[in-house]
Amino acid sequence: MYLLMVVIFVFGYLGIALEHNIKVDKAASALLTGVLTWTIFVFGASDVLNVDYSWSIPEFIANSGDYVKGLKNYALGLSDASIGADENVKSLTNHFIIHELEHHLIEISEILFFLIGAMTIVEVIDVHGGFSVITDRIKTTKKVKLIWILSILTFFFSAALDNLTTAIVMAALLKKLIADKKDLWLFAGVIIIAANAGGAWSPIGDVTTIMLWIGGQITAGNIIATLILPSLVTLLVPLGILSFTMKGNITRPDDSNGIDKDLTTKSERNLVFILGVACLLQVPIFKTVTHMPPFMGVLLGLGILWLVTEILHKNKSHKDKTQLSVVNTLRKIDTPSVLFFLGILVAVASLQSAGHLIDLAGILESSVGNLYIINVIIGLLSSIVDNVPLVAAAMGMYEIGPEVAGISYPVDHVFWEFLAYCAGTGGSCLIIGSAAGVAVMGILKIDFVWYLRKISFLALVGYLAGAGVFYILAQTLYTH
What we know:
1% strand, mainly alpha
């Protein structure tokens, strides 16, 4: 059953990768994979968790050291008051699995609500023609010049916001600038690389960096100082390659692009654009001040934007008001992409709870040993199984303390810093390897195999070049 969970995950992944070949939407494959892996976990719990159902409850608790970390903590946390008279080892094991699923669902829901909120804010700006504030100022149609401008903007915008929000904004912007689908996809692929690279060097730019920052493994000032150059190289190398291979001009789409500018005045477009961007920019500030999850900040911003647009259009005709309303905008949200996100995150969560990822981290430690190579591999694996559980596994394996190779590392040690870089940028190698990639994939309908053929090599070269720069700097400048 332990191996069957991996087999189901692999087949589900293939279904996602080959969605255009098999003509099955990736959301269906992801949802089936997520549900099936947890179902197998439930029915094969004794095998997966190495639990004997014939044990008594005291034996179950006494043998807790043999389990995966989550079950060990669950077993040790049991008390006489929490164990019912009719409970047995099988029912307690099932309770643990349900407890794990509910725990993961909280974290996944936070991501999904954030995604829905951010996509809605961006769509409201779009419906009001707000992006014309930017597109009207970008005059160049030269591919090379435009991709440099947009990529550098994305890189720094991602550090100030986060890579997911930035990717959503830039995907909407690209649709206003580029008509040809292949050019649009190529620019979007580089935007994904830029968003992930920009998020890696900021303590609030990527979920994994936030995890390490809050966990105490890194400090904000140090992570910025040590990772900004390697992260920048991660972007500059692909841009440099494209500067020699990319030629010609882009074709601008029809100015209207389905939006009737007569519905809004210039002042209304400017107001909605500025307010929408401000609502996104306040999210990291809201999180820092309140310590609440980012999705609460996004929902606050959406609520403010919703209220303002309702007041702004109260005197318009019912038809015009309906077209510009947030309610109408919500109907345009790409629900299949949200469900795809749900399915893939639920599937990865099952492997985390069942111990597959911690076992993988253990294998890397025992067979590789070198902290630089381990982190490079973790970064590449994050493009397959998501960087959050991999970083969580690494944080669980290694403690904060005096440097003892393979056991503990002090705050701001190169291990933690390089882990932040690799987990943040390695996901760009595959389009479903990062939240930014998944979001852009859904918004622009990018094909998995196309990205693999056209973008993955650029992302990999940039990733390895940035890792090389980090290694050189670590050996010559950084001391811990």
